[in-house]
């Protein structure tokens, strides 16, 4: 009986946690203001002596050169609280010895095969349209931590050469919809912004530099989610607070692993 009561309480909390969270205009405005400041900082950094975040610290650069994948929160370890949501800002860096910029760009631009490279998080991918260095991309992603969430996402991705041996890439989500009953006959999309709020926005800022016998790769990922309801951090907290960092590190690691495969 004690076990049954605990199960019923758990089920009730689960149902409460999974109620919809509405994305409010003021939340979107806060995210837009935040990413505008990020881009102002990145534009200034591109004109300065340190194009890469890892170059700003000798110790950081040493760790990256030793094949470590670094990840750091730029909001002080906890997401930034905004009206109606949370902003997560993580930056990651790694070095891929023996890689060339051409090989890296060829891999990351091959969005039709991201579902093969970035499993298990990316389970579907294709290019919707391409115009020179600008892409429209569609990804189906799976987030799994305590609970499993499937999202259909669209992005505008812009590549720009920043120097003779460096490129920058900016990726902006244009649609994120949660998929209910994914892969089943009754699969359906929840309305964008009127779902469970596990991911509402994702802007990614990539930098690639070829030097020192390899390629430095960095990404700053800024995402917007719902906040964590009081008392339900054990259930929603892991997927909202932990996954931004894990997704970033996994994307870097999977890229390095793919480039290490024969024929790359």
Give the overall silhouette.
globular
| N/C terminus separation | 58 Å
Summarize the biggest pleated sheet.
10 strands, antiparallel
How many structural domains does the protein architecture include? 1
Unreliable segments (pLDDT under 50, ≥5 consecutive)? 1-17
Number of DSSP E strands: 12
Q: Give the integer mean of the pLDDT values.
A: 89
> Structural class, from helix and strand content?
alpha+beta
According to CATH, the homologous superfamily is: START domain
CATH class: Alpha Beta
Q: What fold name goes in the CATH topology slot?
A: Alpha-D-Glucose-1,6-Bisphosphate, Chain A, domain 4
- Strand residue percentage: 35-45%
Number of helices: 6
Q: Any idea what the radius of gyration is?
A: 19 Å
In helices, the fraction of residues equals 25-40%
Order of secondary-structure elements: HEHHEEEHHEEEEEEEEH
CATH architecture: 2-Layer Sandwich
Brief account:
The protein is of the alpha+beta class. It contains 6 helices and 12 strands. The chain has helices at 2-17, 25-46, 58-65, 101-108, 114-117, 233-259; strands at residues 21-22, 70-73, 80-82, 85-97, 122-131, 134-145, 147-163, 166-180, 188-189, 194-195, 201-211, 214-225.
């Amino acid at each position: 009986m004690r076990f049954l009561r605990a199960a019923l309480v758990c089920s009730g909390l689960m149902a409460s946690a999974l109620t919809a969270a509405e994305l409010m205009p003021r939340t979107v405005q806060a995210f837009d203001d935040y990413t505008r400041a990020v881009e102002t900082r990145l534009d200034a950094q591109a004109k300065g002596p340190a194009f890469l975040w890892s170059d700003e610290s000798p110790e950081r650069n040493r760790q990256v050169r030793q094949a470590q994948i670094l990840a750091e929160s730029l909001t002080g370890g906890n997401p930034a609280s905004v009206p109606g949501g949370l902003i997560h800002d993580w930056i990651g860096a790694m070095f891929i010895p023996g890689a060339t910029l051409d090989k890296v760009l060829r891999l990351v631009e091959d969005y039709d095969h991201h579902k093969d490279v970035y499993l298990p998080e990316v389970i579907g991918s294709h290019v919707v349209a391409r115009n020179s260095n600008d892409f429209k991309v569609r990804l189906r992603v799976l987030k799994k931590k305590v609970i499993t969430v499937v999202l259909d996402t669209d992005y505008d991705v812009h590549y720009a050469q920043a120097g003779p041996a460096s490129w920058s890439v900016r990726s902006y989500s244009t649609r994120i919809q949660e998929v209910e009953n994914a892969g089943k006959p009754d699969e359906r999309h929840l309305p964008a912004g009127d779902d469970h709020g596990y991911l509402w926005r994702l802007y990614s800022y990539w930098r690639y530099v070829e030097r020192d016998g390899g390629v430095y790769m960095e990404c700053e990922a800024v995402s917007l989610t719902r906040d964590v309801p009081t008392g339900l951090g054990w259930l929603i907290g892991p997927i909202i607070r932990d996954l931004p960092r894990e997704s970033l590190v996994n994307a870097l690691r999977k890229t390095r692993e793919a480039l290490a495969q024969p024929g790359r």
